[in-house]
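Recap from last week: sequence in, structure out.
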Amino acid sequence: MSNYSGALEDANKVLLHLREPYNPGALIVKGDALYHMGMFEHSLVSYYRAARQPDLLSKFVHLTYLRKKNGNSPIVVLQ
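Predicted structure tokens:
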């Protein structure tokens, strides 16, 4: 069983307490947690905010490169 409320709490810590309201990684985690908790409209807001961040594409490209380099194994990269 996944701990979506814990993931949401962690994402909110980054977004609110660390004062990084535009952190794309935290916004995506928040969107995923809200989605799996059945709050679909709220999850879309988080995904939309993440997609508007200019460094999201560079993080995705970097992650894709690392996955190909390591045989497509799941890797989490936080920069």
